[in-house]
Amino acid sequence: MSVTIKTPHEIELMREAGRILALVHENLAKEIRPGMSTLEVDRIGEEMIRSYGCIPSFKNYCGYPASICVSVNEEVVHGIPSGKRFLEEGDIVSLDAGVIYKGYHSDAARTVGVGEISEDAKLLIERTRMSFFEGMKKATAGNHLHDISNNIAAYAEKFGYGVVRDLVGHGIGKALHEDPEIPNFRKLSRGIKLRSGMTLAVEPMINAGTHEVLWLDDDWTVVSEDLSLSAHYENTILITEGKPELLTLTESEKAAGYLDLF
Ligand code: CO
């Protein structure tokens, strides 16, 4: 396994890739409304990515046919946008996107409500986001990779949620998926030592029920086995000697105090 350490120049490019993706998510979330098809979500998202001069990294990745993964309710990740699938009031929808800027990748996901959603759904979304920030408390040079994993899992499991094990986060840079794999569940081993200049996509996927998942016949869409609601939250981060730098947060997320959560 080889984990790359980015140069200052590479980090600059990844910051820009991250800044743009954060804006795409901020703007795309505002477009979500009952009645729109998931294909429409993809079209709007892809248009935004290209308007910033970036390439949508998911498009045609291993044959994935769209730019935005749109996963509704029990769909965990990799939902395929469709002109026949319409968002309904009360749904939750996970939007996962990646962009390439001057050869460097960023990757981030947000789960948002469609119109008014249930209290349980709100809590699942909020706690999935918080599990990421619990992980960030350990994302410092000198700590070990699985310290992040264990913090994420310990937080989410307190609520009786199922932490998905069959999909993991990853290193990121010149490629969308680089070493190392980043589990969101508890590991007995410590994992590699974190070093300044590593760039990682940390992405907890949390189910309201069982952690077990299934793949649908389209070979992409992952659903919770018990069809319970599922949420996803992901940012691309830079490991430093101090707090990690979160490359895919917007200015308004920072102003809302997200950097004080870890
Ligand atoms: Co990812």
In short:
The protein has five helices and 15 strands. With about 260 residues, the protein is an alpha+beta fold. The longest helix has 24 residues.
Average pLDDT metric: 98
What strand order characterises the main sheet?
8-7-9-14-15
Bound molecules: cobalt (II) ion
Give helix % range: 25-40%
Distance between the termini: 29 Å
Give the helix tally: 5
| Rg | 17 Å
Give the overall shape.
globular
How many strands, what sense, and barrel or not for the largest sheet? 5 strands, antiparallel
> Which residue ranges are poorly predicted, with pLDDT under 50 across at least 5 consecutive positions?
none
Structural class: alpha+beta
Query: How many runs of DSSP E, i.e. beta strands?
Result: 15
Beta-strand content bin: 15-25%
Give me the strand/helix succession.
HHEEEEEHHEEEEEEEEEEH
What does this structure look like?
This protein has 262 residues and is an alpha+beta fold. It has helices spanning 8-31, 38-51, 119-136, 145-157, 251-255, and strands spanning 55-56, 68-72, 75-77, 92-101, 104-113, 162-163, 169-171, 178-182, 199-202, 205-207, 213-215, 222-224, 230-232, 235-238, 245-246. The protein has a 5-stranded antiparallel beta sheet with strand order 8-7-9-14-15. Strand 4 (92-101) and strand 5 form a beta hairpin. Helix 3 (119-136) runs antiparallel to helix 4 (145-157). The longest helix has 24 residues, at 8-31. The radius of gyration is 17 Å and the shape is globular. The mean pLDDT is 98. The structure holds cobalt (II) ion.
